[in-house]
Amino acid sequence: MRRIVLAALTMGSLAAAGVAFAFDNGQFENVPPDIRAWFKSVIAPNGVPCCDISDGHRTTYDVRDGTYWVPIEGRWMAVPERAIIRDRGNPVGEAVVWYVHHRGDIIISCFVPADAV
């Protein structure tokens, strides 16, 4: 039984390490500390952190009938009001969207427009 638990822990650690490497391949190592701190501090209106720099995607956007739309993985998606962050500023000068895959769909968790103040 002890061997099974140890094997499961080892495999879980390897899987977690593989996931970590998949998101951070060093592409964010040259980001200034103030920008990195901003990404870590952004919180959705419902109080949930947007995550980190490697989870945010710089994006273009469109406004249609007062609703923000962003392209994600080849399709334009409406940004839900609950995800729009207007009070954290935007030091990168481009819109940023955070999203996750959940049960075969894409869920937008946070969005900061380029002109957020």
Structure at a glance:
The protein is of the alpha+beta class and 117 residues long. It has two helices and six strands, in the order H-H-E-E-E-E-E-E.
Verbal overview:
With 117 residues, the chain is an alpha+beta fold. It has a domain at 32-112. The chain contains two helices and six strands, in the order ααββββββ. It has helices at 2-23, 33-41, and strands at 56-59, 62-64, 67-72, 75-78, 95-102, 105-112. A three-stranded antiparallel sheet has the order 1-5-6, with no helix packed on it. It has a three-stranded antiparallel sheet with strand order 2-3-4, with no helix packed on it. Strand 3 and strand 4 form a beta hairpin. It is globular and about 35 Å long. The model is unreliable at 1-24 (pLDDT under 50).
Q: How many separate helices?
A: 2
How much helix, percentage-wise, in residues? 25-40%
Range of strand content: 25-35%
Q: What do the pLDDT scores average to?
A: 77
Trace the largest sheet across and list its strands: 1-5-6
Structural class: alpha+beta
Keywords:
117 residues; alpha+beta; three-stranded antiparallel sheet; 6 strands; globular; disordered N terminus
Compile the SSE list and pairings:
Blueprint: H1 2-23, H2 33-41, E1 56-59, E2 62-64, E3 67-72, E4 75-78, E5 95-102, E6 105-112
Antiparallel strand pairs: 1-5, 2-3, 3-4, 5-6
